[in-house]
């Protein structure tokens, strides 16, 4: 009996023990379920999202990899559910990575904050309807193609044209144009022209006819002996100089000379030489620079002088040096002292006395202007042998501004400086120091230095390796620039910081802004209209990125393009953005303002955001309540697209100049310094293109969320309808690195 009871007791103990173990197991399962809710935390600190699903459940527009910054790969999305990703990503993270960013209440509070409002309405993007990406015709099917006029140069005995020093006897024919402009075998001399461009494989030419000839109706059909063929070898668009002349035609309004120009295709002894810009020679002439021209052999001092800026060179036969010997201050308060400046007189046969006379005169004018602006001292200029400065009379009762304008305008044409300054601000011309100016000191002239005859714009409009020329924002011509020495126009620097001069710039700007916008768009139109000719040039001389480069084109910081159409589109977009920035500074504010565009926000804490995220490469993304969690599958150039093409409405890039990214990197990331690259797909650019992007440095990984704001107005390719943004979130990274992106926003300017 006792044995029976003992065995029964033991059985009961075993039963109770089994019940206790089962209860404990149930309790543990319950606790795990509680810890796996939407708060996103495991007991070990790993985050989860019970609502995460595969992107296959959401609407997606397929992408093809553009090859920008990476090799071509299949476009299948690499998003996974969290259950799929636990085994191959979470276990790869150290406990420091998985717990550090969630270790403080402050971080939790920060992640729960609502984003600050910009004051505009906000559209949080809902899932888009399926769309088909349009089949875009890169050559613009709605713009009829045309052939450029053709110029044939045939040299005597087939001699090559290689020298700047002598003309080769030739004949010139013009064809493929209106019948009225056709020329047949007109006698002329041809030589190489230019300086930096003269050493390029594609040579620029100077034509000098034996008798005056009209060329393709330029300058009202007037006939001249001298014409130029600009090679534009260093300008991959071959449209910068043309655009500048077009802007000048509007801004100078015929009051001050600027060359007329048109593109042509050139053949030398039947060999195709490429696309050139036929334009006028800058010279003293009744229908060009209309000032008094001394007769050959004249020794008179009081004549007309046209001075061609030479920058650092003094090797021209008629070189002179002007000596301002003044210290100037730009609009930012920077100062610089100027001693000598090199010019060459247009024409030939000047005496040493004539050279000295115009040099002293010009130097004295600099001193008159500097004294009025910086010293509150006002002078008139006595054109005696020493160019004596005398106190200006009849200034009583004038304000300081009136005194400045009165004394300066007596010796220096302020209006010409205003118009030329606006032109150079548009172009951001690196060679602004090589400006041209003239003065007519004859009894028929007004005796004022005048700025005109713009020239030399291949190193402009973002076509140098200096970042200051790339940005579409910021004043350039009126600031001192230290790119391989001081390369800006001294007159602009002195006057640009003066209120009344800027007010004059504003007045000119407001009068012509709509016409300037039209020229920026015409750049794009010409790109398409003459597409065949431009592609033939590229076939002859190679793509712009692969040409022999010099000086300001010798680094990888230049924009490179695989097709001429891309180079032309870039220039047009850059000019559109540049004009918009200048209009924000100089516009009169009377333009009708449309209702403020709404913020476009992709909230990456919400599951429906899957519909806007695709094309992911070398990374996996999981939507969590803290944002899109990005982990690497390969530690090299990971990226994904934010796609706007499925929206029921289209939005214009011109209305959205701010890209805002809210992101966080854990403290356990391998590196201290990270950067991201953003490829901007808008207008005629439907996918990521190498170089059509903007870079940004990121904050050091610290487990906190940060807001990155990028001004897209500084890029020259953010225009037209918005399509996509490719986010290369780690330019450099290592295995195990993580990033969370909470939101991507496009905000109105």
Percent strand: 15-25%
User: How many E-type strands?
Assistant: 28
Tally of helical segments: 13
Runs in which pLDDT lies below 50 for 5 or more consecutive residues are 1-11, 33-118, 127-140
Q: In percent, how helical is the residue content?
A: 25-40%
Largest sheet features = 7 strands, mixed
Molecular shape: globular
Ends: how far apart? 95 Å
Task: Determine the mean pLDDT.
Answer: 80
Radius of gyration: 34 Å
Instruction: Supply the helix-strand structural class.
Output: alpha+beta
Compact description:
The protein is of the alpha+beta class and 749 residues long.
Lay out the secondary structure.
Elements: H1 2-35, H2 82-88, H3 95-100, H4 105-111, E1 122-124, E2 150-155, E3 168-175, E4 183-192, E5 205-213, E6 224-230, H5 240-251, E7 261-268, E8 271-280, E9 304-311, E10 319-322, E11 326-329, E12 335-338, E13 341-345, H6 352-375, E14 379-382, E15 388-391, H7 400-411, H8 414-427, E16 436-440, E17 450-451, H9 467-470, H10 490-496, H11 499-529, H12 531-541, H13 564-586, E18 599-603, E19 613-617, E20 619-624, E21 627-632, E22 639-643, E23 656-664, E24 675-682, E25 693-697, E26 705-711, E27 722-728, E28 738-748
Parallel strand pairs: 1-18, 2-7
Antiparallel strand pairs: 2-3, 3-4, 4-5, 5-6, 6-8, 7-8, 9-13, 9-16, 10-13, 11-12, 14-15, 16-17, 18-28, 19-22, 20-21, 21-28, 22-27, 23-26, 23-28, 24-25, 24-27
